[in-house]
Design a protein that fits this description.
The chain is mostly helical. It has two domains: 5-68; 100-146, no CATH class. 40% of the residues lie in helices and 0% in strands.
């Protein structure tokens, strides 16, 4: 289980050893004065471990990679939309097909409507009356069922 020593002692990340020691004293006092019937989240061993970790990180910050510092400058996270390696210029692609005429587009539209209507009708438990689409309702639609 990973534990954060700053959280256990109750100080902000990057706190000095002196701040951590003060917080350790307050937390240890809370433990001593605490009613035995209610268990706290941490023991004195946890507090001692956390204080040691904070002291070690302040004495030798380059010796551990378990806790890393985040830059306090929020502008470091802003993406500039005008420059950057991954911001490639937009290039429109050449068309690889001929434009579709109005009659072809209408034919595709009709086929899509017919396919959609057949799909809906095939999944109905009861027969439906056709909506106004100039369809001959006397001839059944072939849904592929025999």
């Amino acid at each position: 289980m990973r534990r954060n020593p700053y959280f256990i002692v109750g100080v902000d990340y990057g706190a000095t050893t002196a701040e951590a020691t003060k917080a350790f004293g307050r937390a240890a006092k809370r433990l001593r004065n605490h009613d035995e019937g209610n268990a706290l989240d941490y023991t004195i061993e946890d507090l001692t471990w956390a204080l040691h970790q904070i002291d070690h990180m302040n004495a030798e910050p380059d010796s551990s990679v378990d806790h890393f510092r985040v830059p306090a400058d929020p502008s470091a996270y802003r993406v500039q939309v005008t420059d950057g390696v991954l911001l490639l210029p937009v290039r429109p692609l050449d068309r690889s097909t001929d434009p579709i005429g109005a009659s072809e587009l209408e034919q595709i539209r009709e086929q899509a409507l017919d396919a959609g209507a057949n799909w809906v009708l095939a999944r109905q438990e009861q027969p439906l009356r056709f909506f106004d689409r100039d369809i001959d309702t006397t001839t059944p639609i072939d849904l592929g069922r025999r």
